[in-house]
Amino acid sequence: MTRSAGSIDSEHRRVVLAAMIGTTIEWFDFFIYAICAGLVFAGQYFAALGEGALILSFATVGISFFFRPVGAVVAGHLGDRIGRRSVLILTLLLMGVSTVLIGLVPTTATIGVAAPVLLVLLRILQGLSAGGEWGGAALLAVEHAPADRRGLYGAFPQIGVPIGLLLANGAFALVAALTTAEQFLAWGWRIPFLAGVALIAVGLVIRTKVVESPVFEEVRRAEARSRVPVVVLLRHHWRLVLAGALVFAANNAVGYMTTGGYVQSYAVKSLHLDRSTVLAAVMVSALAWLASTLVGGLLSDRYGRIRVYRIGFAVQLAWMFPFFALVDTGDVGLLVLALVLFSVGLGFTYGPQAALYAELYPTAVRYSGAALSYALGAVLGGAFAPTIAEALQTSTGTVHSVGAYLAAVTVVGLVASSFVPDRRGRPLDAADDRPHEPGPASKTADP
After folding, report:
1. Domain 9-213+225-436 has what CATH class?
2. Could you state, in order of their start, the residue ranges of all structural domains in the chain?
3. Which residues, at least 6 apart from 239, have a Cβ–Cβ distance to it below 8 Å?
4. φ and ψ at 338, to 5 degrees?
5. Which of 153, 216, 305, 358 is most buried by its number of CB atoms within 10 A?
6. Basic and acidic residues bias located where (predicted)?
7. Is this model's pTM higher than 0.90 or not?
Protein backbone atom coordinates (compact mmCIF):
# COMPACT_ATOMS: atom_id res chain seq x y z
CA MET A 1 0.00 0.00 0.00
CA THR A 2 1.36 3.46 -0.91
CA ARG A 3 1.74 5.95 1.90
CA SER A 4 2.30 9.65 1.77
CA ALA A 5 5.59 11.05 3.00
CA GLY A 6 3.83 12.59 5.97
CA SER A 7 2.26 9.32 7.09
CA ILE A 8 5.61 7.55 6.78
CA ASP A 9 7.19 10.18 9.01
CA SER A 10 4.39 9.88 11.56
CA GLU A 11 4.60 6.09 11.64
CA HIS A 12 8.36 6.16 11.85
CA ARG A 13 8.35 8.55 14.78
CA ARG A 14 6.36 5.97 16.72
CA VAL A 15 8.73 3.21 15.70
CA VAL A 16 11.95 5.03 16.58
CA LEU A 17 10.49 6.11 19.91
CA ALA A 18 9.61 2.50 20.71
CA ALA A 19 13.06 1.31 19.59
CA MET A 20 14.77 3.97 21.68
CA ILE A 21 12.74 3.33 24.84
CA GLY A 22 13.10 -0.43 24.55
CA THR A 23 16.85 -0.15 24.00
CA THR A 24 17.12 2.24 26.96
CA ILE A 25 15.44 -0.26 29.26
CA GLU A 26 17.57 -3.11 27.91
CA TRP A 27 20.83 -1.26 28.48
CA PHE A 28 19.83 0.17 31.83
CA ASP A 29 19.50 -3.43 32.98
CA PHE A 30 22.84 -4.37 31.41
CA PHE A 31 24.78 -1.40 32.79
CA ILE A 32 23.67 -1.60 36.40
CA TYR A 33 25.50 -4.93 36.60
CA ALA A 34 28.69 -3.35 35.20
CA ILE A 35 28.50 -0.50 37.72
CA CYS A 36 28.03 -2.93 40.59
CA ALA A 37 30.96 -5.01 39.37
CA GLY A 38 33.25 -2.12 40.28
CA LEU A 39 31.45 -0.83 43.35
CA VAL A 40 29.82 -3.84 45.04
CA PHE A 41 30.37 -7.34 43.67
CA ALA A 42 34.11 -7.61 44.34
CA GLY A 43 33.51 -7.35 48.09
CA GLN A 44 30.17 -9.12 48.29
CA TYR A 45 30.77 -12.10 45.98
CA PHE A 46 34.51 -12.44 45.27
CA ALA A 47 36.18 -11.22 48.47
CA ALA A 48 37.86 -14.59 49.06
CA LEU A 49 40.25 -13.78 46.20
CA GLY A 50 41.77 -10.84 48.05
CA GLU A 51 43.51 -8.39 45.68
CA GLY A 52 42.26 -10.32 42.67
CA ALA A 53 38.61 -9.81 43.62
CA LEU A 54 38.14 -6.62 41.60
CA ILE A 55 39.78 -8.07 38.49
CA LEU A 56 37.56 -11.17 38.64
CA SER A 57 34.50 -9.03 39.29
CA PHE A 58 35.22 -7.05 36.12
CA ALA A 59 35.86 -10.36 34.33
CA THR A 60 32.26 -11.41 35.02
CA VAL A 61 31.20 -8.35 33.05
CA GLY A 62 33.21 -9.71 30.13
CA ILE A 63 32.09 -13.33 30.40
CA SER A 64 28.63 -12.43 29.17
CA PHE A 65 30.12 -11.05 25.96
CA PHE A 66 31.14 -14.52 24.84
CA PHE A 67 27.46 -15.41 24.78
CA ARG A 68 26.47 -12.38 22.72
CA PRO A 69 27.35 -14.10 19.43
CA VAL A 70 25.12 -17.01 20.49
CA GLY A 71 22.30 -14.58 21.20
CA ALA A 72 23.03 -12.82 17.92
CA VAL A 73 22.84 -16.05 15.90
CA VAL A 74 19.60 -17.19 17.57
CA ALA A 75 17.94 -13.77 17.44
CA GLY A 76 19.26 -13.17 13.93
CA HIS A 77 17.80 -16.46 12.71
CA LEU A 78 14.43 -15.71 14.29
CA GLY A 79 14.49 -12.07 13.23
CA ASP A 80 15.19 -12.98 9.61
CA ARG A 81 12.59 -15.75 9.71
CA ILE A 82 9.66 -14.50 11.83
CA GLY A 83 10.33 -10.75 12.03
CA ARG A 84 12.10 -8.04 14.01
CA ARG A 85 9.23 -7.16 16.36
CA SER A 86 8.66 -10.58 17.94
CA VAL A 87 12.35 -11.07 18.68
CA LEU A 88 12.59 -7.67 20.35
CA ILE A 89 9.82 -8.67 22.74
CA LEU A 90 11.66 -11.90 23.61
CA THR A 91 15.01 -10.19 24.21
CA LEU A 92 13.39 -7.60 26.47
CA LEU A 93 11.74 -10.31 28.57
CA LEU A 94 14.99 -12.27 28.91
CA MET A 95 16.97 -9.23 29.98
CA GLY A 96 14.34 -8.04 32.44
CA VAL A 97 13.83 -11.36 34.19
CA SER A 98 17.56 -12.05 34.55
CA THR A 99 18.13 -8.53 35.90
CA VAL A 100 15.47 -8.86 38.58
CA LEU A 101 16.89 -12.22 39.63
CA ILE A 102 20.38 -10.72 40.00
CA GLY A 103 18.90 -8.32 42.53
CA LEU A 104 17.70 -11.32 44.54
CA VAL A 105 20.92 -13.38 44.62
CA PRO A 106 22.21 -13.73 48.23
CA THR A 107 25.85 -12.88 48.92
CA THR A 108 28.70 -15.34 49.39
CA ALA A 109 28.47 -14.83 53.14
CA THR A 110 24.93 -16.25 53.02
CA ILE A 111 25.05 -19.15 50.54
CA GLY A 112 28.75 -19.60 49.84
CA VAL A 113 30.15 -20.38 46.39
CA ALA A 114 26.65 -20.71 44.92
CA ALA A 115 26.35 -16.91 45.09
CA PRO A 116 29.02 -16.03 42.47
CA VAL A 117 27.94 -19.00 40.34
CA LEU A 118 24.34 -17.75 40.21
CA LEU A 119 25.58 -14.24 39.52
CA VAL A 120 27.62 -15.37 36.54
CA LEU A 121 24.81 -17.55 35.14
CA LEU A 122 22.38 -14.65 35.23
CA ARG A 123 24.97 -12.38 33.65
CA ILE A 124 25.26 -14.91 30.82
CA LEU A 125 21.50 -14.63 30.25
CA GLN A 126 21.94 -10.86 30.04
CA GLY A 127 24.63 -11.44 27.43
CA LEU A 128 22.35 -13.64 25.33
CA SER A 129 19.69 -10.94 25.40
CA ALA A 130 22.12 -8.12 24.59
CA GLY A 131 23.48 -10.09 21.65
CA GLY A 132 20.08 -10.20 19.99
CA GLU A 133 18.59 -6.90 21.11
CA TRP A 134 20.60 -4.32 19.25
CA GLY A 135 20.22 -5.73 15.75
CA GLY A 136 16.44 -5.82 15.97
CA ALA A 137 16.07 -2.33 17.41
CA ALA A 138 18.48 -0.84 14.89
CA LEU A 139 16.86 -2.51 11.89
CA LEU A 140 13.35 -1.68 12.99
CA ALA A 141 14.30 2.01 13.02
CA VAL A 142 16.40 2.06 9.85
CA GLU A 143 14.08 -0.10 7.73
CA HIS A 144 11.20 2.27 8.44
CA ALA A 145 13.28 5.37 7.63
CA PRO A 146 13.40 7.44 4.43
CA ALA A 147 16.61 6.62 2.55
CA ASP A 148 18.13 10.06 3.09
CA ARG A 149 17.53 10.06 6.86
CA ARG A 150 18.55 6.57 7.91
CA GLY A 151 21.60 7.84 9.78
CA LEU A 152 19.55 10.20 11.93
CA TYR A 153 16.68 7.81 12.62
CA GLY A 154 19.08 4.93 13.16
CA ALA A 155 20.79 7.05 15.82
CA PHE A 156 17.67 6.93 18.03
CA PRO A 157 18.04 3.32 19.14
CA GLN A 158 21.75 4.12 19.52
CA ILE A 159 21.02 6.85 22.07
CA GLY A 160 19.21 4.25 24.16
CA VAL A 161 22.72 3.24 25.30
CA PRO A 162 23.80 6.64 26.74
CA ILE A 163 20.29 7.12 28.14
CA GLY A 164 20.55 3.70 29.76
CA LEU A 165 23.96 4.71 31.16
CA LEU A 166 22.51 7.98 32.39
CA LEU A 167 19.62 6.25 34.14
CA ALA A 168 21.81 3.48 35.56
CA ASN A 169 24.27 5.92 37.10
CA GLY A 170 21.39 8.16 38.18
CA ALA A 171 19.65 5.29 39.93
CA PHE A 172 22.77 4.39 41.88
CA ALA A 173 23.56 8.03 42.63
CA LEU A 174 20.06 8.45 44.08
CA VAL A 175 20.32 5.28 46.15
CA ALA A 176 23.80 6.27 47.36
CA ALA A 177 22.52 9.72 48.35
CA LEU A 178 19.60 8.26 50.33
CA THR A 179 21.55 5.54 52.15
CA THR A 180 24.69 5.31 54.25
CA ALA A 181 27.71 3.55 52.79
CA GLU A 182 26.87 0.49 54.90
CA GLN A 183 23.22 0.45 53.78
CA PHE A 184 24.22 0.86 50.14
CA LEU A 185 26.47 -2.20 50.30
CA ALA A 186 24.03 -4.22 52.41
CA TRP A 187 20.86 -3.76 50.35
CA GLY A 188 20.70 -0.39 48.58
CA TRP A 189 22.45 -1.61 45.42
CA ARG A 190 19.67 -4.16 44.85
CA ILE A 191 16.98 -1.53 44.33
CA PRO A 192 17.83 -0.66 40.68
CA PHE A 193 17.83 -4.38 39.80
CA LEU A 194 14.44 -4.99 41.39
CA ALA A 195 13.04 -1.94 39.60
CA GLY A 196 13.36 -4.07 36.47
CA VAL A 197 9.88 -5.44 37.18
CA ALA A 198 8.31 -2.11 36.35
CA LEU A 199 10.62 -1.59 33.38
CA ILE A 200 9.66 -4.95 31.86
CA ALA A 201 6.00 -3.95 31.97
CA VAL A 202 6.67 -0.56 30.36
CA GLY A 203 8.87 -2.06 27.66
CA LEU A 204 6.40 -4.78 26.76
CA VAL A 205 3.51 -2.33 26.41
CA ILE A 206 5.61 -0.20 24.07
CA ARG A 207 7.02 -2.99 21.94
CA THR A 208 3.77 -4.86 21.44
CA LYS A 209 2.37 -1.74 19.75
CA VAL A 210 5.20 -1.48 17.22
CA VAL A 211 4.42 -2.41 13.62
CA GLU A 212 6.69 -4.85 11.82
CA SER A 213 9.37 -3.58 9.44
CA PRO A 214 7.85 -2.95 5.98
CA VAL A 215 11.08 -4.21 4.40
CA PHE A 216 10.79 -7.55 6.20
CA GLU A 217 7.10 -7.81 5.31
CA GLU A 218 8.02 -7.40 1.66
CA VAL A 219 10.54 -10.25 1.95
CA ARG A 220 7.94 -12.41 3.68
CA ARG A 221 5.37 -11.76 0.93
CA ALA A 222 7.97 -12.49 -1.74
CA GLU A 223 8.89 -15.73 0.06
CA ALA A 224 12.53 -14.64 -0.13
CA ARG A 225 13.51 -15.55 3.43
CA SER A 226 16.58 -17.70 3.98
CA ARG A 227 16.03 -21.06 5.63
CA VAL A 228 19.31 -20.78 7.57
CA PRO A 229 20.29 -17.09 7.40
CA VAL A 230 23.57 -17.37 9.30
CA VAL A 231 24.91 -19.98 6.84
CA VAL A 232 24.14 -17.72 3.88
CA LEU A 233 25.63 -14.78 5.76
CA LEU A 234 28.94 -16.47 6.53
CA ARG A 235 29.17 -18.03 3.07
CA HIS A 236 28.83 -14.75 1.18
CA HIS A 237 29.44 -11.90 3.63
CA TRP A 238 32.00 -13.06 6.20
CA ARG A 239 34.45 -10.30 5.26
CA LEU A 240 31.81 -7.66 5.98
CA VAL A 241 30.98 -9.32 9.29
CA LEU A 242 34.64 -9.28 10.35
CA ALA A 243 35.36 -5.74 9.17
CA GLY A 244 32.20 -4.42 10.81
CA ALA A 245 33.11 -6.19 14.04
CA LEU A 246 36.58 -4.61 14.16
CA VAL A 247 35.15 -1.15 13.55
CA PHE A 248 32.69 -1.55 16.41
CA ALA A 249 35.35 -3.10 18.69
CA ALA A 250 37.28 0.18 18.70
CA ASN A 251 34.22 2.10 19.83
CA ASN A 252 33.14 -0.54 22.32
CA ALA A 253 36.47 -0.91 24.13
CA VAL A 254 36.68 2.83 24.69
CA GLY A 255 33.02 3.13 25.68
CA TYR A 256 33.36 0.42 28.29
CA MET A 257 35.64 2.58 30.34
CA THR A 258 32.44 4.14 31.67
CA THR A 259 29.71 1.70 30.67
CA GLY A 260 31.82 -1.15 32.08
CA GLY A 261 32.39 0.67 35.35
CA TYR A 262 36.19 1.06 35.16
CA VAL A 263 36.35 4.86 35.41
CA GLN A 264 33.81 4.87 38.25
CA SER A 265 35.79 2.25 40.16
CA TYR A 266 39.14 3.98 39.59
CA ALA A 267 37.83 7.39 40.64
CA VAL A 268 36.22 6.06 43.82
CA LYS A 269 38.78 3.47 44.94
CA SER A 270 42.08 4.90 43.66
CA LEU A 271 41.39 8.65 43.64
CA HIS A 272 39.07 8.50 46.69
CA LEU A 273 36.38 10.66 45.12
CA ASP A 274 32.84 10.55 46.47
CA ARG A 275 30.77 7.79 44.87
CA SER A 276 27.72 9.99 44.22
CA THR A 277 29.89 12.72 42.71
CA VAL A 278 31.55 10.30 40.30
CA LEU A 279 28.23 8.82 39.25
CA ALA A 280 26.91 12.35 38.62
CA ALA A 281 29.98 13.12 36.47
CA VAL A 282 29.30 10.04 34.34
CA MET A 283 25.68 11.15 33.98
CA VAL A 284 26.84 14.47 32.52
CA SER A 285 29.09 12.61 30.10
CA ALA A 286 26.16 10.39 29.09
CA LEU A 287 24.27 13.51 28.00
CA ALA A 288 27.24 14.57 25.89
CA TRP A 289 27.43 11.08 24.39
CA LEU A 290 23.71 11.21 23.58
CA ALA A 291 24.07 14.55 21.79
CA SER A 292 27.18 13.54 19.83
CA THR A 293 25.53 10.26 18.80
CA LEU A 294 22.59 12.12 17.28
CA VAL A 295 24.95 14.55 15.56
CA GLY A 296 27.05 11.66 14.26
CA GLY A 297 24.00 9.97 12.79
CA LEU A 298 22.78 13.21 11.22
CA LEU A 299 26.18 14.04 9.68
CA SER A 300 26.48 10.52 8.27
CA ASP A 301 23.40 11.18 6.13
CA ARG A 302 25.16 14.15 4.56
CA TYR A 303 28.83 13.19 4.48
CA GLY A 304 28.78 9.38 4.58
CA ARG A 305 28.95 6.77 7.35
CA ILE A 306 32.65 5.93 7.10
CA ARG A 307 33.82 9.54 6.92
CA VAL A 308 32.04 10.33 10.19
CA TYR A 309 33.50 7.17 11.75
CA ARG A 310 37.01 8.28 10.83
CA ILE A 311 36.48 11.70 12.35
CA GLY A 312 35.30 10.01 15.54
CA PHE A 313 38.29 7.68 15.67
CA ALA A 314 40.64 10.63 15.14
CA VAL A 315 39.02 12.44 18.09
CA GLN A 316 39.26 9.31 20.24
CA LEU A 317 42.94 8.93 19.43
CA ALA A 318 43.80 12.57 20.01
CA TRP A 319 41.97 12.75 23.34
CA MET A 320 43.01 9.43 24.85
CA PHE A 321 46.10 10.50 26.82
CA PRO A 322 44.78 13.95 27.85
CA PHE A 323 41.66 12.17 29.10
CA PHE A 324 43.51 9.98 31.57
CA ALA A 325 45.80 12.85 32.59
CA LEU A 326 42.76 14.92 33.59
CA VAL A 327 41.06 12.00 35.34
CA ASP A 328 44.25 11.31 37.30
CA THR A 329 44.27 14.81 38.81
CA GLY A 330 41.42 13.78 41.12
CA ASP A 331 39.69 17.11 40.44
CA VAL A 332 35.93 16.72 39.95
CA GLY A 333 35.64 19.55 37.46
CA LEU A 334 38.44 18.18 35.32
CA LEU A 335 36.89 14.71 35.56
CA VAL A 336 33.63 16.06 34.11
CA LEU A 337 35.51 17.91 31.35
CA ALA A 338 37.52 14.80 30.52
CA LEU A 339 34.43 12.62 30.32
CA VAL A 340 32.42 15.09 28.23
CA LEU A 341 35.13 15.49 25.59
CA PHE A 342 35.75 11.74 25.73
CA SER A 343 32.12 11.26 24.69
CA VAL A 344 32.43 13.23 21.45
CA GLY A 345 34.56 10.61 19.73
CA LEU A 346 32.29 7.88 21.09
CA GLY A 347 29.21 9.51 19.60
CA PHE A 348 30.74 9.96 16.17
CA THR A 349 31.76 6.28 16.09
CA TYR A 350 28.36 5.15 17.35
CA GLY A 351 25.72 7.37 15.77
CA PRO A 352 26.12 6.07 12.17
CA GLN A 353 26.33 2.40 13.19
CA ALA A 354 22.71 1.32 12.76
CA ALA A 355 22.49 2.76 9.24
CA LEU A 356 25.92 1.46 8.28
CA TYR A 357 25.16 -2.12 9.31
CA ALA A 358 21.66 -2.12 7.81
CA GLU A 359 22.99 -0.98 4.44
CA LEU A 360 25.76 -3.60 4.41
CA TYR A 361 23.52 -6.67 4.21
CA PRO A 362 20.58 -7.93 2.10
CA THR A 363 17.21 -8.08 3.88
CA ALA A 364 17.11 -11.89 4.04
CA VAL A 365 20.23 -11.97 6.25
CA ARG A 366 20.26 -8.41 7.56
CA TYR A 367 19.28 -9.16 11.17
CA SER A 368 21.85 -11.98 11.35
CA GLY A 369 24.56 -9.80 9.78
CA ALA A 370 23.97 -6.72 11.90
CA ALA A 371 23.59 -8.68 15.13
CA LEU A 372 26.65 -10.86 14.54
CA SER A 373 28.91 -7.93 13.54
CA TYR A 374 27.77 -6.11 16.65
CA ALA A 375 28.17 -9.11 18.97
CA LEU A 376 31.62 -10.07 17.69
CA GLY A 377 32.73 -6.45 17.94
CA ALA A 378 31.59 -6.41 21.54
CA VAL A 379 33.60 -9.57 22.29
CA LEU A 380 36.73 -8.16 20.64
CA GLY A 381 36.29 -4.70 22.12
CA GLY A 382 34.36 -4.22 25.34
CA ALA A 383 34.21 -7.76 26.73
CA PHE A 384 37.31 -7.54 28.88
CA ALA A 385 38.21 -3.87 28.42
CA PRO A 386 37.56 -3.06 32.13
CA THR A 387 39.46 -6.20 33.19
CA ILE A 388 42.41 -5.36 30.93
CA ALA A 389 42.37 -1.76 32.14
CA GLU A 390 42.39 -2.81 35.79
CA ALA A 391 45.19 -5.33 35.17
CA LEU A 392 47.30 -2.78 33.25
CA GLN A 393 46.85 -0.13 35.92
CA THR A 394 47.72 -2.60 38.70
CA SER A 395 50.79 -4.02 36.96
CA THR A 396 52.25 -0.75 35.66
CA GLY A 397 51.18 1.54 38.47
CA THR A 398 49.89 4.15 36.05
CA VAL A 399 46.57 4.76 34.36
CA HIS A 400 48.39 5.96 31.23
CA SER A 401 49.04 2.33 30.28
CA VAL A 402 45.27 2.07 29.88
CA GLY A 403 45.40 5.03 27.50
CA ALA A 404 48.03 3.26 25.39
CA TYR A 405 45.87 0.15 25.20
CA LEU A 406 42.80 2.09 24.08
CA ALA A 407 44.82 4.11 21.56
CA ALA A 408 46.00 0.86 19.97
CA VAL A 409 42.43 -0.45 19.76
CA THR A 410 41.32 2.83 18.15
CA VAL A 411 44.00 2.50 15.47
CA VAL A 412 42.70 -0.99 14.66
CA GLY A 413 39.20 0.44 14.19
CA LEU A 414 40.49 3.24 11.99
CA VAL A 415 42.31 0.79 9.74
CA ALA A 416 39.33 -1.59 9.63
CA SER A 417 37.05 1.23 8.47
CA SER A 418 38.94 1.18 5.16
CA PHE A 419 37.55 -2.30 4.51
CA VAL A 420 33.90 -1.40 5.16
CA PRO A 421 32.05 -0.07 2.08
CA ASP A 422 29.88 2.99 2.55
CA ARG A 423 26.51 2.16 0.95
CA ARG A 424 24.66 5.22 2.14
CA GLY A 425 21.20 5.45 0.61
CA ARG A 426 21.17 2.07 -1.16
CA PRO A 427 17.73 0.41 -1.49
CA LEU A 428 16.83 -1.89 1.39
CA ASP A 429 13.94 -3.70 -0.24
CA ALA A 430 13.81 -7.31 -1.37
CA ALA A 431 14.38 -6.37 -5.00
CA ASP A 432 17.91 -5.27 -4.08
CA ASP A 433 18.71 -8.43 -2.13
CA ARG A 434 21.60 -9.54 -4.30
CA PRO A 435 24.65 -10.53 -2.23
CA HIS A 436 27.20 -7.72 -2.01
CA GLU A 437 30.10 -10.12 -2.33
CA PRO A 438 30.59 -12.76 -5.07
CA GLY A 439 28.01 -15.52 -4.86
CA PRO A 440 24.44 -16.38 -5.85
CA ALA A 441 21.47 -14.45 -4.53
CA SER A 442 20.35 -15.35 -1.02
CA LYS A 443 17.05 -16.76 -2.28
CA THR A 444 18.84 -19.51 -4.16
CA ALA A 445 21.93 -19.77 -1.96
CA ASP A 446 20.32 -21.47 0.99
CA PRO A 447 21.80 -24.81 1.98
Report:
1. mainly alpha
2. 9-213+225-436
3. 419, 437
4. -60, -45
5. 305
6. 424-437
7. no
